[in-house]
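Researcher: Next entry in the queue.
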Amino acid sequence: MTLNLGIDCCTKWTSIGVSENGCILTEIHLNIGRKQSAELAKAVNEALRFSGRSLTQVNLIVLTTGPGSFTGVRVGLSYGLALATALKCPVVPVNTLEFIAHQALPFFRNKTLVPVLSAKRGFVYAAAYDYPANSNLLFPLISPGFFSDEDLHEILIRLKNGLVLIQEKNRCLDLPSSLMVINGTDIPSGGLLSTLGDLYFERACSSREVKGLYLRPPDIG
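Model: Structure for this entry, 221 residues:
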């Protein structure tokens, strides 16, 4: 049996999920802001307790690697990778935008999914994914990147029809009127994240090989 632990700290929510053989056992969602570093270990222990499992039984850790909150990415990776090292188990890295697309996938399997996250004023993190009929995996048409609103607009115009843009709640972009726009879920599913470890197991690697995807260039001045 494979017990997966999913950890996502890339948004304002801290989401933990536990799954076993593809079945979600439990998930916890906490809006704890800057307390992530202090509360993350406790949340993981609680999720495992609710699932009736222990930390020593974890076989695989699934981590979102960004983009997202700089502090959240750093906290989630620091804890998750240290835990993987201690447990001597592999890690499956999942891009935050890819994770958002997977949450919308059951409703839009025949569409091109374009998840968008705010980066800073006038800029976004974005990517575009297709779901090929002969595969269970998302295919990146546009790799995750850091774009201005104007650049994103041009990219979407060049893509084929049938786009679904997944934006943050209360985030309004100046986009083509023909585009279908939905709000992404406010609370990421840590349970779903943990199951993605099985889907993307070929990515499994040691904790030393996982890097955060920050994308946004450092501010100057």
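Model: The helical segments are 36-51, 70-87, 96-104, 149-158, 190-199.
Researcher: Noted, moving on.
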